[in-house]
Amino acid sequence: MTNIHIAQGRIINPASQTVQVGDIYISEDRIISMTDQPDGFVADRVIDASDQIVCPGFVDLSVRLREPGASQKA
What we know:
Elements: E1 3-13, E2 18-27, E3 30-33, E4 45-48, E5 53-54
Parallel strand pairs: 1-4, 1-5
Antiparallel strand pairs: 1-2, 2-3
């Protein structure tokens, strides 16, 4: 699995009703910290999110779900 560090993004978290600039740490496809780097965490990939909005758990609202075989409607 890949460890990902999303650095200095504007984090909008509806669950806790907070907006803050900070880092997110992801391991094994799960967010493990949204504030401090966990002990022993080594990032395989660092994403610079400066001046970007980061919304943990946000769903792509432009997705279109269709029956297979209608590729012309994609």
